[in-house]
Design goal:
heterodimer, A: about 475 residues, alpha+beta, five-stranded mixed beta sheet, four-stranded parallel beta sheet, 24 strands, about 30% helix, globular, B: 16 helices, about 75% helix
Chain lengths: ~475, ~325
C-alpha cells in the first residue's frame, strides 16, 4: 500500500522543500514515514478553516490557562501566548528507548564526575581531562570541595538538548544543568493538544507525561536531609522580573509547595527558615532556580539581593538540601561538554549510547587555527552562555561579525568552542494555512533522585522563522508537543 | 491527615503584606473617587462654601496629600487627583500600587482577580479615560468605581476564604474605618458647629453630599426617612452595625478578619493586639450617640483613627515584620 501523501495533503504541503536535512514526517523520496500516516490523514481530511479554528481554540486555551509570558515594555502587562505550533512531533517507541538509556547513562556519569571533581579529582590525576579546563571554568566553585551532598546527587534536574542529524541519529548538542526551563510549556502543550486533537491523540496511544510534577516532588523529597521525614520543600525563585517566573509559579503550584524568594528566607544557627504569618518555619529542601552567583551574598556575589545570607553555610552543615547543588555549572560548560564521552567511559566503563556533536576546543592551537580559517562554516559559542546568546552562526553571518568573533576568540580562547553547522531535522509546521518545514530540537527532562526518571518526550523547540536555526524562546523560537508512541 | 492536603494554612509574610496593601490601595482609590465626585457636584451650586474651601476640605478628608494645593483651576486639580501617577494621593497611584502588589503575588489570587485588576489599570491609563474626563467626568469616575466593585465581587467569589482572603478583608476594612473617621472628623465642624445657620437648601446638599461620600444616602433614608439631621448622620455612619460603610461595621469586619487569621495559625497573638481591637470594637458597640454628642465628637473620631493606626502596627509587628529573635523565642 502506498504511503505517498493523498492529493488533499499535497495541497496542504504545497511547495514543501525536502533537502539533505532529515524531515521528521517525510522520507527523502517524499513518502510519509509510517508513524506519521495517521496525522497526515487527519490533516488531509480536515476542511481548511477547521485547522484555523483549531488553532484559534488552542490559542484561547493557552490564554485562559495563563500560559503566557508578560511583556512589561510599552504594552504594560500585555500577556502574550508563548509561540507554539499545532502539529505534534512524533517519536517512535524504539527511538525513545534508546534515548532513555543514553540520557540515564549521561546523567549518571555527570553526577560521578561532579562528585569526583569536588573530592579527590581522580579523573584529573589520571589525565583524562586537562586540569586547567576544570579550574579555569567560572562555574567551578571551590567552596564545594569536600562537601558532602545528600545521596551524592549533584544534578537532580537536567535538560539535555538533542538534535537529529541527516542519518536520523539523535545526538546531544548540550546539557543544561543550571536552571533548565521549559517544562511548564511541555506540560501545557500536552494539555492543549489533548483538547485540540483528542481522537488523533487517543488513536496514537501517546505515552503520558502529566506526572512530571509528581516525579519532581518525589525526587526533591528523596534528597531531604537525614532525620527530616516530613521535609518542607520550597522553590526558590528570583521573582516576578525573571523571564521564567511563570514556570516557577506553575511548578510550585503543581507540586503543592511554597514559592519563595530570597527575602522570605533567613538563616539562624545554620538552619534556613522562611518567614510566615505563623512565625518562622524551617526549610529542608530548596529547589533552586536562582543562579549560584546570586544565591548567597556571604559566599558568592555580595551585591545580590536575590539570595539568602548564610544559605551556603546551612547547606554545608547538612541542614538544608539545595538542588541542583552549587557548582554544577561546571558540567554544562560547553568546553567540558566535549569531554563527556570520555567521562562516560571513565566512570561507567561503557561506550556512550548517544553521541556528542563534534566540538573544537579553542584552547588547542591546531583546532583554533582550523576554526579561525573556517568561521563561515562553523557555529561558535561562548562556553557559559545560554538562550542562544553569544553565538555566531557562520553561514548566516556577515564578514564583520566573523571578524569580531575572531578577535574575541584570540583574546579569550577558553571562553569559546566551535561546532560544525548542523543541518538538523525539520518538522512540518502550520504556517498560515499550509505546511512548511522548520528546524526542531528536543529537550527531554531527566530527574535524578533515588533513581533516574525521564518523562517520555520533552519539549520540542522550533525555530519558527523560515530558515532559522535558533530555537530559543528568547529569540523567536516556539514549541511543539512531543508524542512518544507506545 | 488527609492525603495530599497541605497542612499548613499560613502563608509567607511577604504575601500577606502584598494582599493587604493591594486591598488597602483599592479601597483608598474608591474613597478618593467618590469624594471627588461628591465635591465636584457640590461645587456646581454657587451658594454655601467657596470652591476653594471645598477643595481644601476634600484634601483634608483625604489625609492632606501634598502637591495638590488649590491653584484656581478645578479641572486641572481634579485631573491631577485622578491621573497624576506620581502623586501618592491620586487615584492612578493607588490603582498602580494595587496592581503592582497583586503582580507580586499573582499565584495567590485567582486569574479572574488578576484580569479584573489589570483591566482597571488599563482603563485608567487609556487615552479613552482622558477623553472621558473632558467629556463626562462623572461617567469616568463611575466607571472606576464599577471596576473596583467588580474586583471585590470577583475576589469574594473566586478566592478561597483562607488566610489570604482574610488579609484582604483586613486591609479593606481597616482602610475604610480610618478613611470614614477622617471624613467625619473633617466634616464635623461644618455639620455641628453652626446651629445658627438657617436650614437652607445648601445645608441639605452638604449633608446629602457627606452621605453620598459613603454611598449611604439611600440606606440612611431607609433607616431614618428623608429627614436629615447632623446627629443622625453621625449615628448612622459611626454606629450602625448593618451598613457596610459605617465605621462600626468596618471595625466588626476587622475583628473577624484578625480572629480568622489568628485561628489559622499556631501562635497566640500578643495581648496588645487582642486588647486593641477589643477596645475599639467595644467603643463603637457600647457608646450611644447621645454620649458622643454630649462629649467631644471630634476627639472621639480622632481616637478611632489613632486606634486604627495602632491596630495596623500591631498586626504588622506580629504577622509580618517580626524580629527573628522574637520569633525564635517562641
Amino acid at each position: 500500500m502506498s504511503t505517498s501523501p493523498p492529493v488533499e495533503l499535497e495541497a496542504l504541503f504545497g511547495d514543501y522543500p525536502l533537502d539533505s536535512a532529515f524531515d521528521e514526517m517525510r522520507e527523502g523520496s517524499g513518502e510519509l514515514r509510517p508513524h506519521y500516516r495517521a496525522l497526515a490523514e487527519l490533516l488531509a481530511h480536515l476542511p481548511p478553516d477547521e485547522l484555523q479554528r483549531s488553532k484559534q481554540s488552542a490559542d484561547l486555551a493557552f490564554l485562559t490557562q495563563g500560559i503566557t509570558f508578560t511583556v512589561y515594555g510599552r504594552d504594560e502587562g500585555t500577556e502574550r501566548i508563548f509561540p507554539y505550533d499545532l502539529l505534534p512531533r512524533l517519536i517512535t517507541s524504539a527511538e525513545w528507548d534508546k534515548l532513555e538509556s543514553g540520557l540515564t547513562q549521561r546523567i549518571t556519569a555527570l553526577n560521578h564526575f561532579l562528585r569526583d571533581i569536588y573530592s579527590d579529582a581522580k579523573i584529573l590525576n589520571d589525565l583524562v581531562i586537562p586540569r586547567e579546563l576544570v579550574y579555569s571554568c567560572k562555574q567551578y566553585r571551590r567552596q564545594m570541595r569536600g562537601l558532602q551532598v545528600p545521596r551524592n546527587v549533584y544534578i537532580a534536574v537536567i535538560g539535555s538538548d538533542l538534535l537529529r542529524l541527516n542519518n536520523g541519529e539523535f545526538v546531544v548538542l548540550e546539557d543544561n544543568l543550571r536552571v533548565p526551563s521549559g517544562v511548564s510549556y511541555m506540560l501545557t502543550n500536552r494539555r492543549v493538544m489533548k483538547r485540540t486533537f483528542p481522537k488523533l491523540f487517543h488513536g496514537y496511544g501517546v505515552r503520558p507525561i502529566e506526572h512530571y510534577p509528581q516525579l519532581l516532588l518525589a525526587t526533591l523529597r528523596s534528597l531531604a536531609p537525614e532525620g527530616r521525614p516530613e521535609p518542607n520543600i520550597v522553590l526558590l525563585t528570583p521573582g516576578v522580573f525573571n523571564s521564567a517566573y511563570f514556570e516557577h509559579t506553575y511548578l510550585a503550584r503543581q507540586m503543592g509547595i511554597d514559592l519563595v524568594e530570597g527575602r522570605d528566607l533567613v538563616t539562624h544557627d545554620n538552619i534556613v527558615y522562611m518567614r510566615t504569618t505563623d512565625g518562622l518555619k524551617r526549610v529542608d529542601v530548596i529547589y533552586r532556580r536562582v543562579d549560584d552567583d546570586f544565591s548567597d551574598p556571604l559566599i558568592f556575589r555580595s551585591d545580590s539581593i536575590l539570595g539568602c545570607a548564610g544559605l551556603f553555610n546551612a547547606y554545608r552543615a547538612g541542614n538544608v538540601t539545595v538542588t541542583n547543588a552549587f557548582g554544577t555549572g561546571l558540567a554544562d560548560d560547553k568546553a567540558l561538554y566535549a569531554y563527556v564521552p570520555r567521562i562516560i567511559r571513565y566512570y561507567l566503563d561503557e561506550e556512550p549510547i548517544i553521541s556528542n556533536v563534534e566540538t573544537f576546543i579553542l584552547t588547542e592551537e591546531k583546532e583554533r587555527r582550523h576554526v579561525l580559517a573556517n568561521l563561515d562554516k562553523l557555529v561558535v559559542k561562548a562556553v557559559g552562555e545560554s538562550g542562544g546568546y553569544g553565538m555566531l552562526i557562520g553561514p548566516h553571518s556577515t564578514a564583520k561579525q566573523r571578524e569580531e568573533f575572531a578577535a574575541q576568540i584570540e583574546a579569550n580562547p577558553r571562553n569559546y568552542i566551535a561546532q560544525p553547522t548542523l543541518d538538523f531535522s525539520r518538522a512540518p509546521c502550520l504556517i498560515g494555512n499550509h505546511l512548511e518545514p522548520r528546524h526542531v530540537d528536543l529537550r527531554p527532562y531527566i530527574l535524578f533522585g533515588d533513581k533516574v526518571n525521564i518523562v517520555p518526550g520533552g519539549l520540542t523547540r522550533v525555530a519558527l522563522e523560515k530558515g532559522s536555526l535558533v530555537v530559543n524562546s528568547s529569540q523567536g523560537g516556539g514549541s511543539k508537543d512531543t508524542w512518544v508512541l507506545q | 491527615m488527609k492525603l495530599g492536603v497541605r497542612e499548613n494554612a499560613t502563608m509567607l509574610s511577604r504575601v500577606a503584606d502584598s494582599l493587604y496593601w493591594m486591598s488597602r490601595y483599592l479601597e483608598r482609590a474608591e474613597n478618593t473617587v467618590r469624594q471627588l465626585d461628591v465635591t465636584m457636584s457640590l461645587m456646581l451650586d454657587p451658594g454655601g462654601a467657596s470652591v476653594e474651601s471645598r477643595w481644601k476640605r476634600l484634601l483634608s478628608s483625604l489625609g492632606d496629600p501634598a502637591g495638590l494645593a488649590w491653584n484656581g483651576d478645578l479641572e486641572s486639580m481634579a485631573h491631577s487627583l485622578i491621573f497624576d501617577g506620581l502623586n501618592p494621593g491620586s487615584v492612578t497611584f493607588c490603582v498602580d500600587a494595587a496592581r503592582e502588589n497583586a503582580r507580586q503575588v499573582r499565584e495567590e489570587i485567582s486569574t479572574e482577580q488578576w484580569q479584573r485588576l489589570n483591566r482597571l489599570f488599563h482603563q485608567i491609563h487609556s487615552p479613552q479615560a482622558e477623553a472621558q474626563f473632558r467629556s463626562s467626568t462623572g461617567d469616568l469616575m463611575a466607571g472606576i468605581v464599577d471596576g473596583i466593585h467588580l474586583f471585590k465581587g470577583v475576589s469574594d467569589t473566586t478566592m478561597i476564604h483562607g488566610q489570604g482572603w482574610h488579609f484582604i478583608r483586613l486591609g479593606r476594612y481597616l482602610e475604610r474605618a480610618y478613611a470614614t473617621a477622617t471624613l467625619l472628623e473633617v466634616y464635623q465642624p461644618d455639620l455641628f458647629c453652626a446651629p445658627e445657620r438657617e436650614h437652607s437648601g445648601y445645608q441639605y446638599l452638604e449633608q446629602v453630599g457627606l452621605l453620598r461620600c459613603c454611598t449611604a444616602f439611600e440606606a440612611y433614608c431607609q433607616v431614618y426617612t428623608a429627614d436629615i439631621s447632623a446627629d443622625r448622620i453621625l449615628e448612622f455612619l459611626l454606629l450602625n452595625r448593618d451598613f457596610p460603610h459605617a465605621i462600626r461595621y468596618a471595625v466588626d469586619c476587622v475583628r473577624s478578619a484578625v480572629d480568622a487569621i489568628q485561628r489559622s495559625g499556631a501562635r497566640r497573638p500578643p495581648e496588645e493586639l487582642i486588647a486593641g481591637i477589643g477596645r475599639l470594637h467595644a467603643m463603637l458597640g457600647y457608646t450611644s450617640i447621645g454620649e458622643i454628642l454630649a462629649g467631644n465628637p471630634g476627639a472621639f473620631l480622632h481616637s478611632i483613627r489613632q486606634q486604627c493606626i495602632a491596630i495596623h502596627e500591631l498586626v504588622y509587628r506580629f504577622y509580618v515584620h517580626y524580629s527573628i529573635q522574637s520569633a525564635l523565642a517562641v
